[in-house]
Amino acid sequence: MSVTPPPEVLRAPLVVEFPFTRSLGPVQSAFLTGLRERTVLGVRAEGGRVLVPPVEYDPGTAAELRDLVEVGTTGTVTTWAWNPEPRRGQPLATPFAWVLVRLDGADTALLHALDAPGPEAVRTGLRVRVRWAGERSGAITDIACFEPYDSAADTEPATDARDHDGAFEDPVTGIVAPARLDYTYSPGRAQTRYLHALAERRTVGERCPSCAKVYVPPRGACPTCGVATTDRVEVGPRGTVTTFCIVNIKAKNLDIEVPYVYAHIALDGAGLALHGRIAGIPYDQVRMGLRVEPVWSEDGRYPDHYRPCGEPDADYDTYKELL
Amino acid sequence: MTPDREVAIVAFAQSDHLRRTDDLSEVEMVMPVLHEVLRQTGLKAADIGFTCSGSSDYLAGRAFSFTMALDGVGAWPPISESHVETDGAWALYEAWVKLLTGEADTALVYSYGKSSPGSVRDVLTRQLDPYYLAPLWPDSVALAALQAQALVDAGAADESALAAIAARSREDARANPHAQLPGARPQGEYVVQPLRTGDCPPIGDGAAAVILAAGDRARELCDRPAWIRGMDHRIEAHSLGVRDLTDSPSTRLAAERAGAFERPVDTAELHAPFSSQEVVLTRALGLDDDVRVNPSGGALAANPVMATGLVRLGEAAARIHRGESDRALAHATSGPCLQQNLVAVLEGDPRA
């Protein structure tokens, strides 16, 4: 039992990526299909207000909105913000202005990017027009961005919204919104100590100073007592299979032949079981009470699996509290 | 609404708010704060009637990340527990409602956030409308900057006024030992114009906890409980383009329903991550110059995302505990451009 100073912090990249597949309601479908066809649609709310981008329910009254209208592809900046360093995924790779644009015929504003040479070229009230993307699929990014529009003939932004049936050939009914976030994960003190010990082919748990239970792997706290586990206790290397299952479906990207056994293993001295794969024995001969030992992975950072160690099976009473 | 049961914040603790905490897991960061509020009240974990936490898997980058932090509470055998996937101020709201029902007499509320592992500006884009906004990746500073420019256009603020808010917040934070940015500093370059580095909150990690107690239990646990006289939360329409970004009607309505306008408050802890948002909030709440705004330094001095709002409630309560305030307003926000807003009114008993 010893209390050691915090070891060197471990870090690893963690990338979370997910393509969200979302279905569209009738108004959203018409709007995004319209963008594909270079047409901007809004929806008429109660009281005649035209909402662009259109929503399916009135933001004030929750009334169902279905009366589509076509609005202009020119409009007026209602507020802006100059973005000197575009970030991944944003509409333009060079410095640009974020803008809210009230399109001609609309009563509300749409968020997008404005391609302008610099902040001095942007102001609230600036007249702008849509720059369409070359390839359009029925998404908000079918608008590549806005660009300044300085036609002297267009000083009166008075395009009225015109009724539109929202019908297009081959309407889009869903979008796929890819998302990716990058993290640098650090596991904290207890798990860092655990991982450092594993690299030395030792399994070191931590004991709760209150209830004396030994947690393997340690997470830093005893969930029963709510206090930090700090006393380090080497456990194993041998242990007992407390329960197990037979896996018959091959996991994606996992190079293990099925069927194989996945088990709860109570390492000697541990207060709870961890889980690991059992090999070196036919799957249908694995049993509760089987005594096992770790087989370390080639690079030695963690046990690849556990195998029978040849000892007689453990008596049920020795592990029944760890099931 | 006027609650028919007296409930008070009786203890508050927070971590030091730091740019990085790579040596700590979430539970390792949270646990000392939990122990501190229990120490203040003399309660043990087993004495707590209800526990509620607030955090976000998107900050952590892992699903069900709050279950690990729950280990720090001592949640086994199973306790009466809940979690909100937002700022801990809303966890406090849930706990308050639980105590009002009479099902519990004490509650532990905590929240935490580690912004350091990821890129919080990008992470927060994932809370936006997935059809029209999220595909454009408009980050949190960009959206706040659109709101700030709307304020400038409306004549409600200019860059020097925003700089003064940033300087005042960080000067006040000198007296806050937990603050990440104590002391005024240069405004720096534009992050997204018109917001400069100084107008934006620091990025960092931190945790906070409070204990709530009802009636006489509160008087036993605290010399001067911070009684919650009212609390309410309201939300704006989700589309930014239909909102008047210079105003916050949801804050005003929540404040009205919390009873904030019945009598003046002496203190306001406002959850304004950006200097410009303090302008919006003070206008929406009609706070005059007599009200001490963010004596803690506010979110501009420490912004542990998911805990910043709970810290506002805790800081306001702590001033009442210390006798530095008699009636305080605490505000928390969530979402882009002050999308959703919570207001609580806290009072101390008259001093002898």
UniProtKB/TrEMBL annotation, chain A:
Keyword tags: DNA-binding
Every ChsH2 rubredoxin-like zinc ribbon domain range: 196-228
Signal peptide stretch: none
Origin: domain of life: Bacteria
Domain ChsH2 C-terminal OB-fold: 69-132, 233-296
Annotated Pfam families: OB_ChsH2_C, zf-ChsH2
GO MF annotation terms: DNA binding
Name of the protein in its database record: DNA-binding protein
Keyword DNA-binding: yes
SUPFAM superfamilies listed in its UniProt record: Nucleic acid-binding proteins
TrEMBL record, chain B:
N-terminal signal peptide: none
Gene3D superfamilies: 3.40.47.10
MF terms (GO), sorted A to Z: acyltransferase activity, transferring groups other than amino-acyl groups
PANTHER family for the chain: ACETYL-COA C-ACETYLTRANSFERASE, NON-SPECIFIC LIPID-TRANSFER PROTEIN-LIKE 2
Name this protein carries in UniProt: Lipid-transfer protein
Organism classification: Bacteria, Bacillati, Actinomycetota, Actinomycetes, Kitasatosporales
